[in-house]
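$ fold --in a.seq
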Amino acid sequence: MVLVEVVVGAAGYGLSHVLWNRHETRISEEELKQLSKALVEEFTSPQHWQLDVDREMGHLKCDDHAWNGRRLNAIAAKPAKHLGSVGHFSQVLHTVAWRLRVQIEGLAALAGVLGPQFQPLLQPCLFPLIEKAGESSLAISHTARLALRAIARALGLPSPRHLVSDNVDYLLDAVSTGLRFGGTGVQGQAALRVLRATLQRSNRKSLPILRHAALDLLSALDVHHSTRAALYCSALHALAQALGNHTHLLHIILY
């Protein structure tokens, strides 16, 4: 997060026009893009992103209500008020949940700095963010949803729904890969979460692409029905709802 704050400060994000003109340390646009790309790759790399939240966050689940804020701390550039004492802050700071939350906020902050120029970095972080938005922990999912909203705003889009619909082909291709080769591991679980979110935000132009994802989902369910039935059923429910909203296009999916 320190690196993100350095980039944000060097770019003059949040400074008034007068203060920015007095800003002595400037960073070129190309340097800003390269630094942001390196940070996005670092944050979303498997060793830093695919962490076992459910196993390691433990007692923090009972504190989920404390994370229900309306702004990202990284974007607001203010310390979290709900963390209480320094001892409690230190305890939370070293948890997996806090690490993920900081990384998620970092992605949103970089989008805020780059604005529309964040577009080339969208695909590398869109799938991971949507996956975290489906986490069972409110601490993670709520932060991911706020980040998606901030990124949509930075790119000039009305809502995260437009992020999904504009990139549905990429998302479903990644989902198919995850369902085919991820099995019941982390990759397979991430694919199911992203598929469910994509289906919930589908529109007319995305439905023809869903046929392959639906077939992959049913094939994966046939293989892993005894281990991940609940997660698969939630994705199937989202598929049924998507089809129900567009019954006139059912023939595209079924034939």
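$ fold --in b.seq
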Amino acid sequence: MSVDDFINDVFNDKLNLDAVDDNDKTAAIYLAENENYEKLEALIKMGANINFVNSRNESVVSILLNKLREYRNLDAFPLKVHKKYTASLNMFEKLVKKYRCNLDVPVDIDDNTAFMALMLIPKLEDVISKVIFFRELAIYP
């Protein structure tokens, strides 16, 4: 089954919202990988588990953090990349603030949590400050 068919089957109630395919990925993970944040948000609103972590410590949060790191590390940071970075950052903010994702789940092979991973990435100071801000507001415990 193709990734698109898998995602369509989830949206069409042919598969559970949190179904895992042969690659140990959910539709939410694929949507995050493909930066289809509109569909990802629709899936979350339908009740998908945004805190699912597969056997490789991949999750929606880890995918977004990797995208943010990738875009921030590009030297030129052209407008196209800036737009992708901004879209990924906005989705990350929504996951934390609106959907209250768990930042204490592992996001890499070293079992770093999302919060720990943010502190290990020096070029993501703005993301770290936003997470701290959310925590101070008690939006995320």
